[in-house]
Amino acid sequence: MMAKLTAMYQRMSKRERMMTLAIAAVLFLLINLFVWRWLLGGIGNSRRELATRKSTRTQQVIYMKERELWKNRDEWVQKNQPLPKGAEEASTLLDQIKQIAGKYNILIENPAIGQGETTANHQAVFASIETSSHWTELVHFLYDVQQPDAFVVFESVNLAIDTNDPSMMRGKFKIARWFAPPQRKKPGT
């Protein structure tokens, strides 16, 4: 076979030989490019996977170190998360929000209340409101509404500068109170 190739190469003209060598060089470069790209892609994927695994491991170590903290927090939530008293809870939440807003001269518009979602960790009631206020009053309002022992969360927040008065902020909030889930009873009951 090698003798046939050598004989064929000898019969070629100088121009045909140059063209054959050029094609062979291009094929060699393309094959090398493909192989190197495949190798470097594999190395890159391995590095990304290693970084992901290191990150996961770091998180796991932190969780293990903080296990007692999270256990204590869970016990605190189990002990202190209120049970719903009835359908009026959403109305009570809205009244509390209005009271805090009044304390900071925040205008409340378009109030609405409703039952929120029920999950394994909580059941919720919500109040949706739109506000108009200065930025500093809004910050105080947000702070006062969301205290840890109140179990009140902002499920959605949309803030914008008032187009009519740049010193005022317009806000749309969906504020929920999270109660203990139906299957959980207070300790001692």
Major beta sheet, strand line-up:
1-2-4-3
Describe the global form. Answer: elongated
- C-alpha-based Rg, rounded: 34 Å
CATH topology of the largest domain: Alpha-Beta Plaits
CATH level 1 class label of the largest domain: Alpha Beta
Counting DSSP E segments of at least 2 residues, the number of strands comes to 4
Strand percent estimate = 15-25%
CATH superfamily of the largest domain: Ribosomal protein S6/Translation elongation factor EF1B
Distance between the termini: 93 Å
Largest sheet, strands/sense/barrel: 4 strands, antiparallel
The overall average pLDDT, rounded, is: 90
Number of distinct helices: 5
**Unreliable sequence segments:** none
Number of domains: 2
Which structural category fits the helices and strands?
alpha+beta
Provide a descriptive summary of the structure in words.
This protein has 189 residues and is α+β, with helices and mostly antiparallel strands. The chain folds into 2 domains: 2-61; 84-179, Ribosomal protein S6/Translation elongation factor EF1B (Alpha-Beta Plaits, 2-Layer Sandwich), CATH 3.30.70.60. Helices cover 54% and strands 24% of the residues. A hairpin with a 4-residue loop joins strand 1 (107-118) and strand 2. The longest helix is centred in the first third of the chain and has 52 residues, at 14-65. The model has no long low-confidence stretch (mean pLDDT 90).
